[in-house]
Amino acid sequence: MSDETAPVATAADQSIAATQETVEAPSTHTPAVIGVNDVQEKDETTGRKVFVGNLSYETSEEELREFLAPAQGNILDVNLPKRFNNKPAGYAFILYETEEQANTAVEKLDKQVLNEREISVAIAKPPAPKKPRNKRGKAVTTGTAESGTTGADEHAPVTEGEGADGQATKSKKKKAKRPARRLPEEGAEDAESFIPGSNGDTSAAQVTDGSAKKPKAKRNRKPKSAQNGEHSAEGAHEARIDDEGDAEGRTPRSARAPRQKTALGEPSKTLLFVANLPFSVDDAALTEAFTSLSITPKSSKIITKPSYHYVDGKRERGPRRSKGFAFVEVDNEEAQQLAIEKLQGFKMGDREITIKVANERIQQADEHGDEQALKEEGEKEAVAEEQKQEA
DNA sequence: GTTGGCGGAG
Question: Are A240 and A141 in contact (CB under 8 A)?
Answer without folding.
Answer: yes
